[in-house]
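Hey team,

Filing this mostly as a record. A colleague (T.K.) asked me to run one chain through the structure pipeline before their review meeting, and I want the input and output archived in the tracker in case anyone asks later how it was produced. No errors, nothing strange. Just documentation.

Input sequence:
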Amino acid sequence: MGKVVSLRDAIGCIRDGDVLFLGSLIECRRPMAAAYEIVRQRKKGLILLAECSLAEDMLVGMGCAAAWRGCYTGMANFGLSPATLRKIETGEFIVDDIGHIDIILGAMAAMAGSPFIGTRATLGSDVLNPEFSRTEQIRTLARDPSMIPEKKFVLMDDPFYGNGPVKLQPAMPADVAVIHVQQAGEDGTGRIEGSLAFDHYFIHAAKRVILTAEQVVPEAYLRRDPNRNQIPCTSVDMVVEIPWGGHPSQVQGFYDVDMPFIREYVKAAKTQAGLESWVHEWVFAMKTHDEYLDRIGAARLQYLRAIPPYGYRPRASCERSL
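Output structure:
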């Protein structure tokens, strides 16, 4: 039916050494089911883009990722990403820090087919310190080196207005982008509620786009209200229907963030043995996504369900104030 495939088949298209973008931010609308399947299929040498929270931390800790180019490494209220921090300290994982807006501008450049974009963002910061650049090293790790710029940036004087130095920020393409959405059509039209994060850029900056969706609905339904659709079907290669595919992150309109689940992950991932035990319990021991949901339990899932009209589950104090 259209572009709808299984999660296993979709993730199977990711090759070792690919430059990979996992959609959205921190613990909001993350493609967690896809991240579990990447671990399950034992992908290797991936170059991660943008941010590093639970999904990426698990990939780093389990040896699926070799490097990262981005601006945030953390677990929100629970501190730094534990497995990532450990792998950085041992030299097993390479980090190339760039500015938050550099990601947006780099993705916009790739979306537009431009090799770079001019900006003053991060001028005067250590992002420009050549001592901390790992771009050239990461280029040697990628399956396709042309996906990583030869230089992290280039400085030049403004040739148009004479307003001093500007930074030429290279485009930031991806081999594969995996994005979790609330609704997708059979042919790939995608609808996101809430923050778009970087997703509306990377769907055009990636060679291949996979949408995982809470619901797959008829394209005709989405086209009744086209202004609410951010992802065109022409930019999408595969669609996977996987309810609760963002758990334990929040998916606006469907369910809230599962904070205890994340807390337990962070506690376990502080050691390599603890991480591997956690992954065995929640990834390798689960043959299907339904088994994962059964393991969480219906009562817990029901508690996380979003309540209209909020789009999330209000805390007790919020409910009392209404």
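Quick notes for T.K.: The first helix runs from residue 7 to 12. The chain has one domain: 7-241.
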